[in-house]
Design a protein that fits this description.
seven-stranded mixed beta sheet, 656 residues, nine-stranded antiparallel beta sheet, alpha+beta
């Protein structure tokens, strides 16, 4: 990953911006992050019919002579809910009031449909929470139109305009960022007081006989600067994998709400604090990856920005999974691993396959093998846990857990002990979340070599596994043949023995078929390895900076910190090789296959929804390259046919 580009020094504000800044700073009190309005009434939102189609819409508005802000709203194309300015007669920009209101929808050409969703009781409840009487306590940074609209849409208080990575030269956050304290920045994208629900658990003790655990103190909206030296533990994982229950297990108390649900229980970062043997602990329960409503980018940005704002260091990252690991889960987890530089911080990572309470030991082991393959980690990775007497014990960093609520301590003691040891132990080094990764992984040759090495390792691993299966099958076959021979030698066969002979004959036939299957598969694997070895030998001295037929990098990352991010944000992200071609070149698709990276019929590398239509929103100059170039990309928007250069727009191999 390239070093994170630091924003340019904020220029001196002109009088117009100084006036805006002066008014904005009045809304920044850490203790005054509130809407200052009461809940609305049902009659106010009755115009939005249940199950009707709603749109999260946006349009750009001019804020100053230099800066623009994106205004967000929710509409069914008949009426619109939005945050509006209310001026009294003769009022200036510094004297206007704000209010969330519903009015008639007026269609305009500059409207962008960001998301489509359905009206339901949860959306209605969120509308009522923000549309009540009284002047709205507006803030460009903490409580803007995007916060309101996205909250109605998803239940998460998010403004992507306020993300740290949105700070380009014309970003609105740049006006305010250098004037904010660290504690004020921690409030960005956290819900105001009226929207904070009581998410403390029942406080019921889980195992009364257990005393060695973190002593719970409190939940907190943000972690104060004086707590930066605490033991910091962060839980990350897909929605529904049981992170909240594991937080409770560390405290031996139900301190946060935990539900077995396919929809996200936690749509905001939850910070809890406690004490373990005299050292303060901050335990962070993050938003579920692959949330049912929030996009992958929204979840990733919210986790990253919140952790950067609140923590200086992380001691332990617990990656939690359960059930089937989908491709989206894998990509989301790998993004977190790349950001926190797993390759150089392996000691700080713990991988937990959760909800294994009813699994056999063999099933647990199989699930761990699958998880390790998906995340490209070693199942043998260990960390030394030091005891008070000075001795150390190696414990595997990859564990299967069965800590289902309600089980007796005797049923979970082994799992619980390993889990606590891994999470509470102090590592020899800490992850500094604000230090960018210095190594450059954007070079295609790096990923090319890595992909080939991974392929060889995978083939070897599969070969070893298949040899084990073949050996076991051979033993089973010998036993079947032996049993069959003994029965056939019997002079007078009973009816039961005759049926047994038929059964063994069928089993033997199946085993012979399976033996042939593994024999053929072993030959195929051998051939694959020979092809790979031959390829590496032929290309040993070549610079592997282009795609080779049959060996395309699996992943490409499209990213920009320039204007293309705002104009073509939906086309940013990780693209996976589809295995297909278009116009004689490889083709990639994003996670939901709504966008393709392809080579069009006119000789441009292009990113768009349909290769057959030969168009898209991102493109290059004509090129006969076998692979998409890293730079030299252009973008256009919905409202213009003009192509604009973006020097910060790149397409790089691998995940960033």
């Amino acid at each position: 990953m390239k070093k994170r580009v630091q924003p340019a020094e904020t220029p001196r504000a002109n009088p117009e911006e100084e006036k805006l800044l002066e008014k904005e700073k009045c809304s920044w009190g850490v203790d005054s992050h509130a809407l200052n309005s009461s809940p609305g009434t049902e009659d106010q939102v009755q115009g939005f019919k249940n199950k009707s189609k709603l749109f999260l819409g946006s349009k750009e508005i001019k804020l100053t002579s230099k800066y623009y802000e994106t205004h967000f709203f929710v509409t069914d194309k008949t009426i619109v809910l939005e945050l509006v300015k209310l001026y009294t007669c003769g009022a200036s920009i510094s004297q206007c009031d704000y209010k969330v209101q519903i009015s008639d929808f007026v269609e305009s050409d500059d409207m962008v449909e960001e998301e489509e969703f359905k009206m339901n009781k949860d959306v209605r409840k969120r509308m009522l929470q923000v549309i009540g009487p009284g002047n709205f306590n507006f803030s460009h940074v903490f409580r803007n139109s995007e916060h309101i609209a996205r909250y109605v849409h998803s239940g998460a208080w998010i403004s992507r305009q306020m993300n740290e990575d949105s700070m380009t030269n014309d970003s609105i956050r740049r006006i305010f960022d250098s004037h904010m304290s660290d504690d004020q920045k921690k409030l960005i994208n956290t819900p105001p007081a009226e929207l904070i629900t009581d998410e403390e658990g029942s406080m019921e003790v889980i195992h009364a006989e257990l005393s060695d655990h973190v002593q719970y103190e409190q939940q907190t909206r943000l972690i104060l600067s004086e707590d930066k030296d605490a033991q910091n533990i962060v839980f990350v994982g897909p929605t529904g994998c049981g992170k909240s229950n594991l937080v409770n297990q560390l405290y031996n108390k139900k301190v946060v709400i935990s539900k077995a649900s396919a929809s996200s229980v936690t749509r905001k970062m939850q910070f809890t604090q406690g004490d373990y043997k005299g050292r303060k602990c901050n335990i962070v329960d993050t938003i579920g990856l692959c949330d049912t409503v929030l996009s992958e980018t929204e979840v990733y940005d919210l986790i990253k920005d919140s952790i950067r704002a609140n923590l200086v260091y992380i001691d332990k990252v617990a990656i939690v999974c359960s059930g089937r690991i989908e491709r989206a889960h894998k990509e989301a987890v790998k993004n977190i691993m790349n950001w926190l530089d797993y390759e150089h911080n392996k000691e700080n990572f713990v991988f937990l396959y959760n909800k294994s309470d009813s699994d056999s030991e063999d099933t647990r082991q199989q699930n761990l093998v699958i998880m390790c393959e998906e995340f490209d980690i070693s199942i043998e990775q260990t960390v030394n846990i030091h005891s008070p007497n000075g001795s150390s014990l190696p414990v595997k960093c990859v564990q299967a857990l069965g800590l289902k609520p309600g089980l007796e301590l005797s049923e979970v003691e082994s799992d619980l002990m390993n889990f606590r040891r891994l999470l509470i132990s102090e590592p020899t080094s800490r992850i500094n979340v604000n230090v960018p990764i210095t190594r450059d992984k954007t070079d295609i040759s790096y990923w090319y070599k890595t992909d080939v090495s991974a392929l060889l390792a995978l083939l070897k691993q599969k070969d070893e596994k298949e040899n084990e299966l073949k050996k076991a099958l051979s033993q089973q076959k010998e036993e079947t043949e032996k049993d069959l021979k003994e029965l056939q030698s019997t002079e007078a066969l009973s009816k039961h023995q005759e049926e047994k002979i038929k059964e063994l004959s069928i089993t033997l036939s199946k085993q012979e078929d399976e033996t042939e299957f593994w024999r053929r598969k072993a030959l195929l694997l051998k051939k694959k390895k020979e092809l790979v070895d031959d390829f590496l030998k032929q290309n040993e001295e070549k610079e592997k900076t282009s795609f080779q037929t049959g060996f395309h990098p699996l992943l490409l990352t499209v990213s920009s910190k320039g204007p293309a991010r705002d104009g073509q944000g939906k086309r940013m992200g990780v693209y996976t090789y589809t295995g297909g071609e278009h116009n004689g070149r490889a083709m990639w698709a994003n996670s939901d296959a709504s966008q393709k990276l392809f080579y069009d019929s006119e000789g441009h590398w292009t990113i768009g929804p349909n290769p057959e239509e030969n168009r898209g929103g991102l493109s290059t100059n004509k090129s006969d390259q076998l692979c998409p170039p890293v730079s030299g990309w252009k973008y256009t928007t919905k409202y213009t046919t003009v192509w604009t250069d973006d020097p910060l727009l790149t397409v790089t191999a691998g995940e960033r």
